[in-house]
Amino acid sequence: MSEQKMIVARGLGKTFPGTGKSGGQVEAVSDLNLDVAAGELVAFLGPNGAGKSTTLRLLTTLLPASSGEASVVGCDIRRDPAGVRRRIGYIGQGSSAGYTQRVRDELHSQGAFYGIGRRETRLRADELIESLDLGAIAGRQVQTLSGGQRRRVDIALGLIHRPELLFLDEPSTGLDPQSRANLWQHIVELRRRYGTTIFLTTHYLDEADQLAERVMVMDHGRLIADDTASALKRDLAGDRVELGFDSAADAAAAAAHTSGTASGTAVVVPALAADEALPAILRSLDAAGLPPRAASIHQPTLDDVFLALTGRSLREEGQAPATAEHTTSVAHESEEDAA
Ligand SMILES: Nc1ncnc2c1ncn2[C@@H]1O[C@H](COP(=O)(O)OP(=O)(O)OP(=O)(O)O)[C@@H](O)[C@H]1O
Fold first, then answer.
1. Ligand 1 pocket: which of 12, 15, 19, 26 to mutate (most atoms <8 Å of CB)?
2. Atom of ligand 1 nearest to the CA of 18
3. Who contacts 2 (Cβ-Cβ below 8 Å, separation ≥6)?
4. What is the per-residue pLDDT across 278-334, written as a single tens digit (0 to 9) for each?
5. Is pLDDT above 60 for 256?
6. Domains and CATH numbers, the chain
7. Which family does the similarity line name (predicted)?
8. 214-219 and 41-45 as β-strands: parallel, antiparallel, unpaired?
């Protein structure tokens, strides 16, 4: 089963006719090659307009591709779009659940839509209500639910036909941190219980970092990185020790002593494991008569990875909401991470 490919895309592309004054075409997705194995949880990241939603819409057959090919759960997106749709769940941005319908009725209607028998639909609906913790709200109208509850209802609707592959387009956008954490708990639990392969887009870099096994980064319609979050951070960003001095002269001397780089009164020293390197650096600077005024370690985030790849920050582009910084202060005056 683990050998089975859930998504294989080769040279996939989508060009939209131009809509602006210039009238030029928009190459939303270019020459995309993807391989996703059964059971993987993949987070798809990128700035606004990078082409993430378009990719999802191509793979779910909601949009026809302009070039290339792809097979999703073994079905060709061009030749067998109905086969793809039967085998996948897709939850787009925004709630798809009807406003005045009750949660349980909505699940039953969705089962009927997929041609699942009544008895089986009821069993599956009960199981999803239990596993997504919807019991207390199953009899309520969707319009009375909170954002997080609605999102869980959306996911239950996307799973009623037991798809092997679930696409989620920004499942946690707009939710408060507690609802986001709760939703993720459910996503992880669903995957454990049903072995569903999950391919999702998110703007939350910390979510992708902590919860996805694999991170794909898209920019200007192209895939620019594809690996585990830890490998991307290790290979493309790396740890560093940040030191502060009273004068630029001291900083320059300390930079020479530590093989670091000085900028004004600050020094940055790249390190494999900054937390382990820091004590030795401090001892050595002390011995050289150059004790720093402040010291902190910086462990890279996925934003640093994006910065290393593109020279731009995802956050600068209004992309990522605040995330917990991985900067640990070890002196009374910590260097605030400027990112
Ligand atoms: N129907 C369309 N017609 C014309 N251009 C489109 C259409 N849909 C998307 N685009 C353009 O294609 C590019 C990729 O858009 P897409 O929605 O895939 O990006 P995204 O990465 O999902 O962005 P976001 O994070 O904002 O959702 C953008 O330049 C967008 O304006």
1. 26
2. 4
3. 37, 38, 39
4. 999 999 999 999 999 999 999 888 888 888 888 888 775 544 443 433 333 323 233
5. yes
6. 5-227 (3.40.50.300), 237-329 (3.30.70)
7. Belongs to the ABC transporter superfamily.
8. parallel
